[in-house]
Amino acid sequence: MSNATTPNVVRAGWIMTASLLLSRVLGLIREAVISGRFGMGAETDAYVLSFQIPDIIFFLIAGGALSAAFIPVFSEYFHTNREEDAWRVFNSLFGIMSAALLVVITLAWIFAEPLTYVVAMEATANREMVAYLSRIVLPAQYAFFIGGLMFGTLYARQVFSVPGLGPNIYNVGIIFGALVLANFTAPSIAGLSWGALAGAFIGNIFVPLWVLRRMGVPFRPCLDFKHEGVRKVFRLMAPVVLGLSLPGVFALLIQNFGTLYKSDGINTAIKYGNTLMQVPLGIFGQSLAIAAFPALAQFLAQKRQDLFDDQLAKSLRLAIFLSVPFAGLFLAMPHEIIRSLFEHGNWKPENTDLTATGLRMFAIGIPAWCMQPIIMRGFYAAQRSVTPIIYGTIATAAFGAGGYLVARQGGSYDNLVLAGSLAAVLLAILLIGGAKKIAPSMDIKGILKVQAQTLVAMAIPAAALAALIWQFPALTTSGGKLGVLASTGFLALLYAWAYYFICKAFGLKETEYVSRGLNRRLQKGKSETPAGPEEGS
């Protein structure tokens, strides 16, 4: 029986968008809970920096590349009637990576304090706390690596709902840590770390393993280094291990540079700005990339280059259309967004001002960040992982040099964030320019046209929104917490509709997705409306 079914990318995209939307909403709730309980200061900076050591492991063993290299190889076997080989590759990688991770995590646990000098140049006062919190969350990296491998088999089989649970359970774990576990740990912020550890294992190990067993997957971990498929995965991973791709090390570098400011709260402000930037990146960039990746790999395995080129272009245009309005919103009303979400409890107005300064600079790079995972998945699907890593290394070198110089000069930290956004734009330009190597008939002019049209459609309502708030500041500062949240949400909704109608006037095809979604929703609402007395008689 053939496994060469045509993948439903639209359906997969909606599933991943919904799950990642829930994840980002839970992520914002998580940060709102943390901000209210712990505010912003040296302790929250230590918590933020404690994740840097686990991130080094993820980077050194190329965690993101593991699933990116595994899915095309697994798909190649699975969709060409070689299922036994497909599962052999999975079981071998499961065993090999488990053994390697246990060794690396143990070494990192032992040398956690010396490693703080790698991830935090100037956080001298908090090194012991950073090391202590790092030791708690280090085992979570095993869950993320092995969970990513299991999720890869589900993606290749067009199962997207289960992998979407992972980040949601992880967020719930941290929220539980803040609300409950923090009452029983010393320091109290360690409750967040224990919650993160529990959420990582439940969402990334226990749930997918249970699902795979119910699906009858032949789960027999082994150490087969000789299988050609296993060797192919490691060959595809090698350039990522040797390269310094910007998406993989951006958070690590910017938090490290942030410690050079020697000011309590800077690392926390960077973290919150980055968290808000990650909302559109996760909902649109990553969800579209994850949804399209198995299809792209399948199209190439089946020698359907035209479908590959078309799907890659469609995904990029849609990512641009959906991400650009977020950039405008964060540029127009950063204080209002942060105030409505995080300003309560121990979070003070000056914390809002500090975070808003960086959020504007994060906004500039949002469309570029959202395009990158899609183009990179195109290269990975084509099993050409060297090219994006070369481009990523160039962009990372640019950010590393620029960011370090900016931070050393001690100016406003928003210039450091701006350097990161400009590096993201540079990487997106390089990737699009090089995409012709894997997608020769991809409509690059059409992609650039959508980019230009959406920027115009965003700029008009964003400027109007900023002018309105400047003229009438009470609109978003009165009425208490609920009033601020309601007024900010209402203004954001007006802005979104204005952007949509301008794009529709430009004739952007991407607006049809929104129109179809609204029409389906309205039709569903009508069909669910109960019959009145006359209709039911």
Topology:
Elements: H1 9-38, H2 42-50, H3 52-60, H4 63-78, H5 83-110, H6 112-119, H7 127-137, H8 140-156, H9 165-179, H10 190-214, H11 228-242, H12 246-258, H13 266-301, H14 305-332, H15 334-342, H16 349-364, H17 366-381, H18 386-409, H19 414-434, H20 444-471, H21 480-505, H22 511-527, H23 533-536
Helix pairs in contact: 1-9, 1-13, 2-7, 2-13, 3-12, 4-5, 4-8, 4-11, 4-13, 5-8, 6-7, 7-10, 8-10, 9-10, 12-13, 12-18, 12-19, 13-14, 13-16, 13-17, 14-16, 14-17, 14-20, 15-16, 15-21, 16-19, 17-19, 18-19, 20-21
Architecture overview:
The chain has 537 residues and is mainly alpha-helical. It has a domain at 41-242. It is 78% helix and 0% strand. The protein is built from 23 helices and no strands. The longest helix is centred in the middle third of the chain and has 36 residues, at 266-301. It is globular, with a radius of gyration of 23 Å. Mean pLDDT is 84; it is low at 528-537.
In short:
By secondary structure, the chain is an all-alpha fold.
Main sheet characteristics? none
Rg for CA atoms: 23 Å
**SSE run:** HHHHHHHHHHHHHHHHHHHHHHH
What would the principal axes of the Cα set say about the shape? globular
Output the structural class. Answer: mainly alpha
* Helix percentage: over 70%
Report the uncertain regions.
528-537
Report, as a whole number of angstroms, the end-to-end distance: 52 Å
Please count the beta strands (DSSP E, at least 2 residues each). 0
- Mean pLDDT, nearest integer? 84
Q: Please count the helical segments.
A: 23
Name the beta content range: under 5%
